[in-house]
Automatic annotation (TrEMBL), chain A:
UniProt entry tagged with the keyword Metal-binding: yes
InterPro entries noted in UniProt: Hemerythrin, Hemerythrin-like, Hemerythrin-like_sf, Hemerythrin_metal-bd
Keyword field: Iron, Metal-binding
GO terms for MF: metal ion binding
Family membership: Belongs to the hemerythrin family.
All copies of domain Hemerythrin-like, residue ranges: 10-129
Listed name of the protein: Hemerythrin
TrEMBL record, chain B:
Matches recorded under Pfam families: CheX (PF13690)
Protein name (record): CheY-P phosphatase CheX
Organism listed in the record: Acetivibrio saccincola
Domain Chemotaxis phosphatase CheX-like: 46-121
UniProt KW Lipoprotein keyword: no
Encoding gene per record: cheX2
Molecular function, one GO term: hydrolase activity
InterPro entries cross-referenced by the UniProt entry: CheC-like_sf (IPR028976), CheX-like (IPR038756), CheX-like_dom (IPR028051)
EC number(s) recorded for this UniProt protein: 3.-.-.-
The keyword Hydrolase appears for this protein: yes
Annotated GO biological process: chemotaxis
Length: 139, 154
Protein backbone atom coordinates (compact mmCIF):
# COMPACT_ATOMS: atom_id res chain seq x y z
CA UNK A 1 0.00 0.00 0.00
CA UNK A 2 1.68 3.08 -1.27
CA UNK A 3 2.09 6.33 0.62
CA UNK A 4 1.83 9.20 -1.85
CA UNK A 5 3.18 12.73 -1.50
CA UNK A 6 -0.26 14.03 -2.53
CA UNK A 7 -1.68 12.69 0.78
CA UNK A 8 0.39 15.24 2.74
CA UNK A 9 -1.73 17.95 4.29
CA UNK A 10 1.18 20.23 5.18
CA UNK A 11 1.01 19.78 8.96
CA UNK A 12 4.19 17.96 9.86
CA UNK A 13 3.18 15.91 12.90
CA UNK A 14 -0.08 14.74 11.28
CA UNK A 15 1.69 13.87 8.02
CA UNK A 16 4.25 11.80 9.94
CA UNK A 17 1.48 9.88 11.71
CA UNK A 18 -0.34 9.25 8.42
CA UNK A 19 2.84 7.96 6.85
CA UNK A 20 3.34 5.62 9.81
CA UNK A 21 -0.25 4.37 9.52
CA UNK A 22 0.26 3.61 5.83
CA UNK A 23 3.55 1.85 6.58
CA UNK A 24 1.92 -0.32 9.26
CA UNK A 25 -1.16 -1.17 7.20
CA UNK A 26 1.11 -1.99 4.27
CA UNK A 27 3.18 -4.34 6.44
CA UNK A 28 0.00 -5.89 7.80
CA UNK A 29 -1.28 -6.44 4.24
CA UNK A 30 2.00 -8.10 3.23
CA UNK A 31 1.80 -10.45 6.20
CA UNK A 32 -1.81 -11.48 5.60
CA UNK A 33 -1.18 -11.91 1.84
CA UNK A 34 1.98 -14.01 2.21
CA UNK A 35 1.90 -17.72 1.33
CA UNK A 36 3.43 -18.80 4.65
CA UNK A 37 1.46 -21.03 6.98
CA UNK A 38 -1.28 -19.09 8.79
CA UNK A 39 -0.16 -20.20 12.27
CA UNK A 40 3.29 -18.76 11.57
CA UNK A 41 1.77 -15.38 10.66
CA UNK A 42 -0.96 -15.04 13.25
CA UNK A 43 1.31 -13.52 15.96
CA UNK A 44 2.32 -10.69 13.63
CA UNK A 45 -1.37 -10.16 12.84
CA UNK A 46 -2.26 -9.94 16.55
CA UNK A 47 0.60 -7.54 17.21
CA UNK A 48 -0.51 -5.27 14.34
CA UNK A 49 -4.11 -5.32 15.55
CA UNK A 50 -3.04 -4.10 19.00
CA UNK A 51 -0.87 -1.40 17.43
CA UNK A 52 -3.61 -0.28 15.02
CA UNK A 53 -6.22 0.00 17.73
CA UNK A 54 -4.00 2.13 20.00
CA UNK A 55 -2.31 4.15 17.27
CA UNK A 56 -5.53 4.97 15.48
CA UNK A 57 -7.14 6.16 18.73
CA UNK A 58 -4.09 8.32 19.64
CA UNK A 59 -3.82 9.70 16.12
CA UNK A 60 -7.50 10.58 15.88
CA UNK A 61 -7.37 12.27 19.30
CA UNK A 62 -4.36 14.34 18.29
CA UNK A 63 -5.97 15.27 15.00
CA UNK A 64 -9.12 16.39 16.80
CA UNK A 65 -7.10 18.49 19.30
CA UNK A 66 -5.33 20.13 16.35
CA UNK A 67 -8.68 20.84 14.68
CA UNK A 68 -9.90 22.50 17.88
CA UNK A 69 -6.75 24.62 18.04
CA UNK A 70 -7.23 25.92 14.51
CA UNK A 71 -11.02 26.34 14.86
CA UNK A 72 -11.58 23.94 12.00
CA UNK A 73 -15.16 24.53 10.81
CA UNK A 74 -15.89 20.88 9.85
CA UNK A 75 -14.71 19.40 13.13
CA UNK A 76 -18.03 17.72 13.92
CA UNK A 77 -18.24 15.93 10.54
CA UNK A 78 -14.64 14.85 10.98
CA UNK A 79 -15.29 13.59 14.51
CA UNK A 80 -18.17 11.50 13.19
CA UNK A 81 -15.91 10.03 10.49
CA UNK A 82 -13.32 9.15 13.15
CA UNK A 83 -16.02 7.55 15.28
CA UNK A 84 -17.15 5.40 12.33
CA UNK A 85 -13.56 4.35 11.56
CA UNK A 86 -12.95 3.43 15.22
CA UNK A 87 -16.25 1.56 15.32
CA UNK A 88 -15.23 -0.38 12.21
CA UNK A 89 -11.95 -1.46 13.83
CA UNK A 90 -13.59 -2.22 17.18
CA UNK A 91 -16.24 -4.41 15.51
CA UNK A 92 -13.48 -6.59 14.09
CA UNK A 93 -11.56 -6.60 17.39
CA UNK A 94 -14.75 -7.96 18.96
CA UNK A 95 -15.15 -10.60 16.23
CA UNK A 96 -11.53 -11.70 16.74
CA UNK A 97 -12.04 -11.91 20.51
CA UNK A 98 -15.16 -14.00 20.08
CA UNK A 99 -14.25 -16.15 17.09
CA UNK A 100 -10.44 -16.11 17.20
CA UNK A 101 -8.10 -14.77 14.55
CA UNK A 102 -9.41 -16.78 11.61
CA UNK A 103 -7.70 -16.19 8.28
CA UNK A 104 -10.99 -15.51 6.53
CA UNK A 105 -12.03 -12.72 8.90
CA UNK A 106 -8.55 -11.19 8.92
CA UNK A 107 -8.50 -11.09 5.09
CA UNK A 108 -11.92 -9.45 5.14
CA UNK A 109 -10.74 -6.88 7.70
CA UNK A 110 -7.51 -6.23 5.74
CA UNK A 111 -9.40 -5.40 2.53
CA UNK A 112 -11.67 -2.96 4.33
CA UNK A 113 -8.93 -1.33 6.41
CA UNK A 114 -6.95 -0.55 3.26
CA UNK A 115 -9.94 1.16 1.60
CA UNK A 116 -10.89 3.06 4.80
CA UNK A 117 -7.39 4.41 5.32
CA UNK A 118 -6.86 5.60 1.73
CA UNK A 119 -10.30 7.25 1.67
CA UNK A 120 -9.92 8.91 5.05
CA UNK A 121 -6.41 10.28 4.59
CA UNK A 122 -6.75 10.89 0.85
CA UNK A 123 -10.10 12.67 1.10
CA UNK A 124 -11.37 13.72 4.53
CA UNK A 125 -7.99 14.78 5.94
CA UNK A 126 -7.10 16.75 2.82
CA UNK A 127 -9.82 19.19 3.76
CA UNK A 128 -7.88 20.13 6.92
CA UNK A 129 -4.87 20.99 4.71
CA UNK A 130 -7.09 23.02 2.37
CA UNK A 131 -8.45 24.99 5.35
CA UNK A 132 -4.95 25.67 6.71
CA UNK A 133 -3.80 26.83 3.25
CA UNK A 134 -6.90 29.02 2.85
CA UNK A 135 -5.78 30.84 5.99
CA UNK A 136 -2.38 31.46 4.43
CA UNK A 137 -0.86 28.57 6.42
CA UNK A 138 -1.26 30.63 9.59
CA UNK A 139 -3.96 29.34 11.90
CA UNK B 1 -36.26 6.95 -12.33
CA UNK B 2 -34.82 10.43 -12.29
CA UNK B 3 -31.58 11.49 -13.99
CA UNK B 4 -30.14 12.85 -10.75
CA UNK B 5 -30.01 9.34 -9.28
CA UNK B 6 -27.73 8.17 -12.09
CA UNK B 7 -25.72 11.40 -12.10
CA UNK B 8 -25.09 11.14 -8.36
CA UNK B 9 -23.71 7.63 -8.77
CA UNK B 10 -21.52 8.64 -11.69
CA UNK B 11 -20.16 11.68 -9.82
CA UNK B 12 -19.43 9.59 -6.70
CA UNK B 13 -17.77 6.81 -8.76
CA UNK B 14 -15.56 9.30 -10.57
CA UNK B 15 -14.42 10.94 -7.33
CA UNK B 16 -13.76 7.69 -5.47
CA UNK B 17 -11.86 6.10 -8.38
CA UNK B 18 -9.71 9.20 -8.82
CA UNK B 19 -8.86 9.18 -5.16
CA UNK B 20 -8.23 5.47 -4.69
CA UNK B 21 -6.57 4.51 -7.97
CA UNK B 22 -5.97 7.75 -9.93
CA UNK B 23 -8.35 6.66 -12.69
CA UNK B 24 -11.26 8.62 -14.17
CA UNK B 25 -14.04 6.33 -15.41
CA UNK B 26 -15.86 7.48 -18.56
CA UNK B 27 -19.59 6.89 -18.76
CA UNK B 28 -21.11 4.95 -21.63
CA UNK B 29 -24.66 4.99 -22.90
CA UNK B 30 -27.30 4.42 -20.26
CA UNK B 31 -29.47 1.35 -20.93
CA UNK B 32 -32.84 0.28 -19.67
CA UNK B 33 -32.66 -3.37 -18.57
CA UNK B 34 -35.46 -5.74 -17.65
CA UNK B 35 -34.13 -6.69 -14.21
CA UNK B 36 -31.25 -6.34 -11.74
CA UNK B 37 -28.99 -8.91 -13.35
CA UNK B 38 -25.36 -9.02 -14.48
CA UNK B 39 -23.02 -11.66 -15.87
CA UNK B 40 -19.72 -10.05 -14.87
CA UNK B 41 -17.41 -11.98 -12.49
CA UNK B 42 -17.73 -10.04 -9.22
CA UNK B 43 -20.92 -8.31 -8.13
CA UNK B 44 -21.52 -6.08 -5.11
CA UNK B 45 -25.08 -5.24 -4.12
CA UNK B 46 -26.14 -2.38 -1.86
CA UNK B 47 -29.72 -2.30 -0.60
CA UNK B 48 -31.34 1.12 -0.30
CA UNK B 49 -34.02 2.26 2.12
CA UNK B 50 -35.45 5.58 3.18
CA UNK B 51 -36.96 8.12 0.78
CA UNK B 52 -35.85 5.81 -2.04
CA UNK B 53 -35.99 2.04 -1.99
CA UNK B 54 -34.36 -0.56 -4.16
CA UNK B 55 -30.84 -1.76 -4.87
CA UNK B 56 -27.62 -0.82 -6.61
CA UNK B 57 -25.47 -3.48 -8.26
CA UNK B 58 -21.78 -2.91 -9.06
CA UNK B 59 -20.44 -5.50 -11.52
CA UNK B 60 -16.74 -5.99 -12.31
CA UNK B 61 -14.79 -8.38 -14.52
CA UNK B 62 -12.21 -10.55 -12.72
CA UNK B 63 -9.12 -8.88 -14.25
CA UNK B 64 -10.37 -5.44 -13.36
CA UNK B 65 -11.12 -6.48 -9.77
CA UNK B 66 -7.58 -7.81 -9.37
CA UNK B 67 -6.01 -4.75 -11.00
CA UNK B 68 -8.06 -2.37 -8.87
CA UNK B 69 -6.97 -4.04 -5.63
CA UNK B 70 -3.41 -4.31 -6.93
CA UNK B 71 -3.25 -0.55 -7.46
CA UNK B 72 -4.74 0.13 -4.02
CA UNK B 73 -2.47 -2.27 -2.17
CA UNK B 74 0.67 -2.00 -4.28
CA UNK B 75 0.75 -5.81 -4.31
CA UNK B 76 0.15 -8.42 -6.99
CA UNK B 77 -3.30 -10.05 -6.72
CA UNK B 78 -3.84 -13.33 -8.54
CA UNK B 79 -7.17 -14.54 -7.26
CA UNK B 80 -10.56 -13.28 -6.18
CA UNK B 81 -10.63 -14.09 -2.48
CA UNK B 82 -11.87 -12.65 0.79
CA UNK B 83 -9.32 -9.81 0.75
CA UNK B 84 -10.07 -8.66 -2.81
CA UNK B 85 -13.86 -8.98 -2.49
CA UNK B 86 -13.82 -7.19 0.86
CA UNK B 87 -11.83 -4.30 -0.64
CA UNK B 88 -14.16 -4.24 -3.66
CA UNK B 89 -17.23 -4.27 -1.40
CA UNK B 90 -15.86 -1.34 0.56
CA UNK B 91 -15.13 0.64 -2.62
CA UNK B 92 -18.77 0.13 -3.68
CA UNK B 93 -19.94 1.02 -0.17
CA UNK B 94 -17.97 4.29 -0.20
CA UNK B 95 -19.31 5.16 -3.67
CA UNK B 96 -22.88 4.42 -2.51
CA UNK B 97 -22.42 6.50 0.65
CA UNK B 98 -21.06 9.46 -1.31
CA UNK B 99 -23.80 9.18 -3.97
CA UNK B 100 -26.46 9.45 -1.28
CA UNK B 101 -24.69 12.48 0.20
CA UNK B 102 -25.10 14.09 -3.25
CA UNK B 103 -28.74 12.97 -3.34
CA UNK B 104 -29.38 14.49 0.09
CA UNK B 105 -28.83 17.85 -1.65
CA UNK B 106 -32.07 17.02 -3.52
CA UNK B 107 -33.77 16.49 -0.14
CA UNK B 108 -33.63 12.71 -0.37
CA UNK B 109 -32.57 10.91 2.76
CA UNK B 110 -31.52 7.26 2.33
CA UNK B 111 -29.56 4.55 4.11
CA UNK B 112 -27.64 1.77 2.45
CA UNK B 113 -27.34 -1.75 3.78
CA UNK B 114 -23.87 -3.36 4.13
CA UNK B 115 -22.44 -4.59 0.82
CA UNK B 116 -23.30 -8.14 -0.26
CA UNK B 117 -20.75 -9.83 -2.48
CA UNK B 118 -21.54 -12.33 -5.21
CA UNK B 119 -18.83 -14.15 -7.11
CA UNK B 120 -19.99 -14.99 -10.63
CA UNK B 121 -23.19 -13.95 -12.36
CA UNK B 122 -25.76 -12.09 -10.28
CA UNK B 123 -29.34 -13.27 -10.71
CA UNK B 124 -32.15 -11.17 -9.32
CA UNK B 125 -34.34 -12.08 -6.38
CA UNK B 126 -38.06 -12.31 -7.33
CA UNK B 127 -38.64 -8.75 -6.05
CA UNK B 128 -35.75 -7.44 -8.17
CA UNK B 129 -37.34 -8.48 -11.48
CA UNK B 130 -38.19 -4.91 -12.32
CA UNK B 131 -36.80 -2.56 -14.93
CA UNK B 132 -33.53 -0.90 -13.94
CA UNK B 133 -30.98 1.49 -15.44
CA UNK B 134 -27.56 0.13 -16.36
CA UNK B 135 -24.70 2.63 -16.48
CA UNK B 136 -21.64 1.17 -18.26
CA UNK B 137 -18.29 2.69 -17.27
CA UNK B 138 -14.97 2.46 -19.08
CA UNK B 139 -11.53 2.70 -17.51
CA UNK B 140 -8.01 1.85 -18.74
CA UNK B 141 -8.15 -1.27 -16.52
CA UNK B 142 -11.50 -2.58 -17.74
CA UNK B 143 -15.20 -1.96 -18.12
CA UNK B 144 -17.69 -2.25 -15.31
CA UNK B 145 -21.40 -1.59 -14.75
CA UNK B 146 -23.57 0.06 -12.16
CA UNK B 147 -27.19 -1.07 -12.31
CA UNK B 148 -29.63 1.15 -10.47
CA UNK B 149 -33.08 0.12 -9.37
CA UNK B 150 -34.58 2.86 -7.22
CA UNK B 151 -38.07 4.09 -6.69
CA UNK B 152 -39.57 6.70 -4.46
CA UNK B 153 -40.96 5.35 -1.25
CA UNK B 154 -44.39 6.92 -0.91
Amino acid sequence: MMWKEKYKIGVEHIDKQHEELFRRVSEFTKVIRSEEDWDARVDKVKETMIFMKDYVIDHFNEEEIYQEQINYPDIETHREAHAKFREGINNYVKIFEEEGFTEEKIQEFGGKLMAWLIMHVGNMDQKIGEYVRSKGGKV
Amino acid sequence: MKAEYVNSFYKATKEVFQLLVDIEPKRGELKLVEELKNSKDANVKLGVKGDLKGAILFSFPKDMTLELVKIMSGMEMDKIDKFTTSALGEVANIIGGNAFIFLSEHNLSCDITPPEIFIGEYNPSPWEKEKALLLPLTTPIGEFDITINLKENN
